[in-house]
Specification:
Blueprint: H1 10-13, H2 16-19, E1 33-34, H3 46-58, H4 70-79, E2 87-91, H5 94-105, E3 111-116, H6 120-128, E4 132-137, H7 146-156, E5 160-164, H8 176-185, E6 189-193, E7 214-219, H9 221-225, E8 231-235, H10 237-244, H11 254-264, H12 267-289, E9 295-296, E10 303-307, H13 311-320, E11 323-324, E12 326-327, E13 338-342, H14 346-360
Parallel strand pairs: 1-11, 3-4, 3-5, 5-6, 6-7
Antiparallel strand pairs: 2-8, 7-8, 9-10, 10-13, 12-13
Bound molecules: pyridoxal-5'-phosphate.
Length: 364
């Protein structure tokens, strides 16, 4: 018998750019007040939960799901008011859609462009798909630096540009006119990621008809269905026909299809929850602004970015008190000493303010 080698060396097998990556870190949050991941803190009402229980009990989980998810797509069209002439592609979360777009556009020499700081998955997925990534710094106030963007577009001729609207982790909406200029200037496609659309009262959906190279991404995650994993891409059939070829046939499971559809039939529930979150966002902004030495950035999303003195220490002390937010210090030069808190329930938020206040100005 041929002897097996003692060890196989991943360094000889795995691509070097993957070896160099650190895995996306999801901290454990068991028993904590969880304000780190932009989740909707509210459960669904009991009647709707009962309806979901019945639907899942009756679901034919021995069968593959509807590969085209036709019924769910029809519900999404109606609930999200998607223009009739646009197609929809569904993903296992919008993360999967980003991956499909990166894979589809990774021609030799192609460039995937975004801004910095932006949603980290744009850069990570570019690496997964072996497509060159270029990040253009935002202005100091986190607005689009249009001149820098136009110069970078001229230099790199990007195949695809991702812009989150509102942006994560900064929370602001970019100037729609500046985005229009970028769409007009680029030789490639522009994906506007509207993950926080429900909290923003703004959308570029009306621009789809005008710009042949614009596509729009949405997700149900921040709306209250993060656990289901459902994202969607909206755009012209000529793009979506190509991208559909990369979508794995059963990427959206039967439970996700059934439950998402049932919840979309009660869209008012999600809209009410979003309205409550927006009210709480204003309260959170006031509380943070009132704290000594805290700089609060304006938000059109369900989280608030703020700068403190000693972010690492404050983050850790909050964690020790059972409150998990996101520490962005060290992730980008413009985010030095920045923390990000998701808007939770009034009770969760109150505990967060109280803990933060005690850490920042301890009573003597
Ligand atoms: C949270 C987030 C997503 C990911 O959403 P999923 O649908 O849960 O994969 C996409 N884009 C941005 C900007 C986000 O913040």
């Amino acid at each position: 018998m041929r002897a097996m080698p003692n060890s196989y060396d991943p360094d000889q097998i795995i691509r070097p750019e993957i070896l160099a990556l650190s895995a996306y870190h999801v901290p454990s949050a068991t028993g904590m007040i969880k304000l780190d991941a932009m989740e909707n803190p509210y459960p669904l009402p009991p009647a709707l939960r009962d309806e979901i229980a019945q639907l899942t009990a009756d679901a034919q989980i021995n069968r593959y799901p509807d590969a085209s998810a036709a019924a769910l797509k029809a519900s999404l069209r109606e609930a999200l008011m998607i223009p009739a002439e646009m197609e929809i592609m569904l993903g296992n979360g919008s993360d999967e859609i980003i991956q499909i777009i990166a894979m589809a556009t990774a021609r030799p020499g192609a460039v995937l462009m975004s801004v910095e700081p932006a949603f980290v998955m744009f850069r990570m997925i570019a690496t997964f798909a072996n497509i060159k990534y270029v990040g253009v710094p935002l202005s100091a106030d986190f607005s689009l630096d249009l001149e820098a963007m136009l110069a970078a577009i001229g230099k790199y001729q990007p195949t695809v540009i991702f812009l989150a609207y509102p942006n994560n982790p900064t929370g602001n909406l970019f100037d729609a006119e500046a985005i229009a200029r970028i769409i007009e200037a680029t030789p490639g496609i522009v994906i506007v990621d509207e993950a926080y659309h429900i909290f923003a009262d703004a959308s570029l959906v009306d621009k789809l008809a005008q710009y042949p190279n614009l596509l729009l991404m949405r997700t149900l995650s921040k709306l209250g269905l993060a656990g289901l994993r459902l994202g969607l891409l909206i755009g012209r059939p000529e793009w979506l026909i190509q991208l559909e070829k990369l979508r794995l046939p059963y990427n959206v499971g039967i439970i996700t299809q059934l439950v998402a559809q049932a919840v979309l039939d009660h869209l008012d529930v999600l809209l009410e929850q979003a309205a409550a979150i927006k009210t709480e966002r204003a309260i959170m902004s006031r509380h943070l602004t009132a704290l000594e030495g805290v700089e609060v950035f304006p938000s059109n999303a369900n989280f608030i970015l703020f700068r403190v003195n000693g972010a690492d220490r404050i983050f850790l002390e909050l964690k020790q008190q059972g409150i998990l937010i996101k520490n962005l210090d060290g992730t980008h030069p413009s985010l030095t000493n920045c923390l990000r808190a998701t808007v939770g329930t009034p009770g969760e938020n109150a505990q967060f303010y109280k803990a933060l206040q005690t850490i920042i100005s301890p009573a003597v």
